[in-house]
Fold this protein.
Amino acid sequence: MSVLSAIIAVSTKRKADKMSANVYSIESLLVGQEYFSRSIRGKIVRAEKHPHAVWYENCDSYLVEIRPEIGYKNAYRTIAVKTSD
């Protein structure tokens, strides 16, 4: 191993040590998303784990608050988010 390749290997390792990943919660990823159904169309303004969880296979249920495009009264819906294959 030459000195140059050893320096490259060390500097690459140091850069890898400083790298970090952005961590997001499902709730934060849901907020701001568009919501479409037969009864309402709008934007999700708040999301939380459903207090009375609804069971869907391999999914978690979330209670979301939706600000409708038409009208002024926010609505609540339960959605399922797939968490495993």
